[in-house]
Amino acid sequence: MNTFDHQKYRPFPVLAKTDRRWPSQQITKAPIWCAVDLRDGNQALIEPMSVKQKQRMWALLVKLGFKEIEIGFPSASQEDFDFCRWLIEENQIPEDVTIQVLVQARDALIERTYEALRGAKKAIVHVYNSTSPVQRDKVFNLDKQGIIDIAQKGAAKVASEANKQPATKFRFQYSPESFSSTEIEFAIDVCNAVIGVWKPTPENPCIINLPATVECASPNVFADQVEAFCDQVNQRDSLIVSLHTHNDRGCAIAAAELGLMAGADRIEGTLMGNGERTGNMDNVTMAMNLYSQGIDPKLDLSNADEITRVVSECTQIATHPRHPWLGELVYTAFSGSHQDAIKKCLGQQQEGAPWDVAYLPIDPKDLGRDYQSVIRVNSQSGKGGVAYILEQDFGLQLPRWMQIEASRLVQSHAEKNKSEVSSQEIWNIIQTTFMGGQNVSKLKAYQVDKNDTLERVSATISDGEQVHDINGQGDGTLAAFCDALSIQTGMPLEITHYDQHALSEGSDASAVAYVQLKANGTRYCGIAKDHDVLSANVNAILVCIQQAKRAAQSAV
């Protein structure tokens, strides 16, 4: 028997719906956003976030403009409980931000959840239970009424515990887990039972969240389910209908967008789509989709490098170079015909006119990026396989983002000289451009002091003639060095990429670092070798600063 056997699967049943209206609707405004990176995203990680990583993620979500943030499952995890307490006790929650916590519909867990929330000014308590046939029959061994009883009892407990803390403004949220796999009539029955307990009003609505816990049908089927739910559920004017889609079929964003067209008000998702299995709905991609249509997404995504860096460092998941909107290769054209079309369009793009450039659906500068045209070189081209040669002959393993910069320089050299580029010529180009010269400053000594939230550095740098003492602080050692160097140079500095690796035995240095730094709004790349990995990174930053100084002098 063939192990790849499609016959063991059944097509998902579609709704017999002849009155669908969503296909003719258009999204005209941003939804209510809820970020679930610290709960759904965190529980999906091989190594859950540390306290410091949670704090960084929280700070980023607040900075981007999320007003509702699900911070964890405090009844199931002491770390989540403690993080909730830190947010409340250390006054980390802005006045316009509401924290949300998840809890199963079980009395003891609900009580523990309210312990975690004591003293909060406002909070959303999100209670759920499973409703799909496979969960009812094979996991809980309950009939439909048994599932409704769990939901009603949980809703009543959530409401009664809230009454014990009158100083906190609570809102309630219910999720019929696996909504998209539940018979629509039963999903509506369960939610109506919960609504009957909470008795929401238009002035004080509750949130009904409809999860595609496992995406099992095409997005149009999910939109039919959402529209049918919105049409038939009780007290629709007293509800905020929320969606929480997963990406098992690769359609989480499409399902969420069609769900908004079908009548939903709110979206739950994560930055860059991290989540169980293939991931959650990607808030960044959906927000940028709206932005590209002239709709204010109500989120500030203008610093793509910061978003990808923080998410990558907190989740330990690298951003794919082709990730929609934020991938490092998204605004790079390798095709000659694409390059030509983009160049011609950019030459005609008028200031203040609607954006209209071939192959670039948005202006990369809106995200802090630049358009790059790159001609690929390889080992058979006669112009060098730059990355291959640098690794084989000189031990440098250029990260992808630096391969692009190096290839462009080598290609330019080859075209200018109309000749092949030797291994030594490639090395000379790399040394001259990215590794500085005689006058580049070097790190001589440093000290790093760490606490729970900040790292402080004191260091000495020298350019061979002068010695400077610098001091700074940041949420990481390199950020602290950037702060110190920014103070010393007077230039705003921000690391956009960095990488490092050990060198082979026999080298006079043990590590090499690669840094891309934004100084005065322009990107510069530096490479440095050193016996100490941190020193290598800092010296690469100093190479970038040297380039920025030269550029400033040339502009005068």
Main attributes?
single chain, 556 residues, 16 strands, eight-stranded parallel beta barrel, 17 helices, Arc Repressor Mutant, TIM Barrel, alpha/beta
Written overview of the protein:
- The chain is an alpha/beta fold.
- It has four domains: 22-315, Aldolase class I (TIM Barrel, Alpha-Beta Barrel), CATH 3.20.20; 331-369, no CATH class; 374-434, Arc Repressor Mutant (Orthogonal Bundle), CATH 1.10.1220; 442-555, Double Stranded RNA Binding Domain (2-Layer Sandwich), CATH 3.30.160.
- Helix content is 39%, strand content 20%.
- The protein is built from 17 helices and 16 strands.
- The strands form four sheets. Strands 1-2-3-4-5-6-7-8 form an eight-stranded parallel β-barrel, surrounded by eight helices.
- The protein is globular.
Task: Work out the number of β strands.
Answer: 16
Q: What is the rounded distance between the termini? A: 75 Å
Number of domains: 4
CATH class of the largest domain: Alpha Beta
Shape: globular
Largest sheet: 8 strands, parallel, barrel
> What's the architecture of the largest domain, going by CATH?
Alpha-Beta Barrel
Average pLDDT over all residues: 92
Point out poorly predicted stretches.
377-384
Could you state the CATH homologous superfamily of the largest domain? Aldolase class I
CATH third-tier fold name of the largest domain: TIM Barrel
**Structural class by SSE content:** alpha/beta
**Which radius of gyration do the C-alpha atoms yield?**
27 Å
Query: What fraction of residues sit in β-strands?
Result: 15-25%
Strand order of the largest sheet: 1-2-3-4-5-6-7-8
How many alpha or pi helices? 17
Helix content: 25-40%
